[in-house]
């Protein structure tokens, strides 16, 4: 079954046999980074962009690890059946043999990866994609959200808060400025223009966010990367969120108030179709080079 075989420090082994030391700094301090990468029928989606961000996260934490990731990830996917899977990849600074905040340069990082089945959102068709509800809540995170680090307690708290309010995602706001979702990036549409928070250390540079902007540029849809506030969110014609496992989803309700009359908007539909085309080209091998 998908998910049975995991990768740990150079070996492909059953999940039940994978063990990590209690002195691993990922466990003790959240001293680690991660990626979530979708694979469709064994093909990585935006793999280069994920690996680029991984290198950024590793270098921000000064974890000196140069590795050929692609081959390992593809083998893991194949060993788990090669279907539609998201790969979770985590790298910790390693096992120091004791608990101490400071670390030695020589440490051997722990590398772990596993798979989870995902829905092929591109095969689903727009009619079968449900709009979501979100809440808006305070952004309690640190100021290096550009690093995809495992210290996710603030994200977990807001996502749980969303769930307990009957919502699917929590958008976060700091000093009156919207940042992003607990596990997604944010887009607003107003008068035919797409707006999204600009890249900074307050948000994660989402690989799906980057693709939205790339596809918008190619299709001649205007967009702006800028600060957005709560009033703009509520007054939007459309609101979307984006992430690797959810692509672009329409938000139909913010804090219990309808957006765009509570129905999926026309620009979302257009963007979804652009994503579908992009995915189709990737799967049929019509795409080459850096776009993948
Ligand atoms: N989350 N912002 C945050 C805080 C995220 O956790 C994520 C992704 C994104 C979107 O990034 P991308 O488009 O590269 O997936 C933005 C992943 C899916 C997760 O933690 O499960």
TrEMBL record:
InterPro entries: Aminotrans_IV, Aminotransferase-like, BCAT-like_C, BCAT-like_N, Class-IV_PLP-Dep_Aminotrnsfr. This is branched-chain-amino-acid transaminase. Belongs to the class-IV pyridoxal-phosphate-dependent aminotransferase family. It catalyses: L-valine + 2-oxoglutarate = 3-methyl-2-oxobutanoate + L-glutamate; L-leucine + 2-oxoglutarate = 4-methyl-2-oxopentanoate + L-glutamate; L-isoleucine + 2-oxoglutarate = (S)-3-methyl-2-oxopentanoate + L-glutamate. Coiled coil: none annotated. Signal peptide: none annotated. Pathway: Amino-acid biosynthesis; L-leucine biosynthesis; L-leucine from 3-methyl-2-oxobutanoate: step 4/4; Amino-acid biosynthesis; L-isoleucine biosynthesis; L-isoleucine from 2-oxobutanoate: step 4/4; Amino-acid biosynthesis; L-valine biosynthesis; L-valine from pyruvate: step 4/4. Its EC number is 2.6.1.42. It comes from the Bacteria. Acts on leucine, isoleucine and valine.
């Amino acid at each position: 079954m998908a998910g049975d075989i995991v990768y740990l420090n150079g070996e492909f082994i059953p999940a039940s046999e994978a063990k990590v030391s209690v002195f691993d700094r990922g466990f003790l301090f959240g001293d680690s980074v991660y990626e979530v990468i979708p694979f469709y029928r064994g093909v990585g989606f935006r793999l280069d962009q994920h690996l680029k961000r991984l290198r950024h996260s590793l270098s921000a934490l000064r974890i000196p690890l140069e590795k050929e990731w692609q081959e390992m990830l593809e083998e893991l996917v194949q060993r788990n059946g090669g279907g539609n899977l998201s790969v979770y990849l985590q790298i910790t600074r390693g096992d120091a043999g004791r608990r101490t905040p400071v670390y030695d340069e020589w440490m051997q990082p722990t590398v772990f990866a596993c798979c989870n089945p995902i829905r092929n959102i591109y095969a689903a068709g727009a009619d079968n994609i449900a709009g979501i509800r979100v809440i808006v809540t305070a952004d309690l995170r640190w100021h290096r959200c550009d690093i995809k680090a495992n210290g996710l307690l603030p994200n977990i708290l807001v996502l749980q808060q969303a769930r307990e309010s009957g919502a699917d995602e929590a958008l976060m706001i700091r000093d009156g400025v919207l940042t992003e979702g607990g596990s997604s990036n944010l887009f607003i549409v107003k008068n035919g223009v797409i707006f999204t928070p600009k890249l900074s250390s307050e948000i994660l540079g989402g690989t799906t966010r980057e693709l939205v902007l790339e596809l918008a540029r190619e299709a001649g849809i205007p967009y702006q990367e800028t600060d957005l506030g709560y009033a703009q969110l509520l007054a939007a014609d459309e609101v979307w969120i984006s992430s690797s496992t959810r692509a672009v989803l329409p938000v139909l309700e913010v804090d219990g108030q309808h957006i765009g009359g509570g129905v999926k908007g026309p620009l979302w539909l257009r963007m979804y179709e652009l994503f579908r085309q992009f995915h189709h080209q990737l799967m049929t091998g019509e795409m080459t080079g850096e776009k993948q």
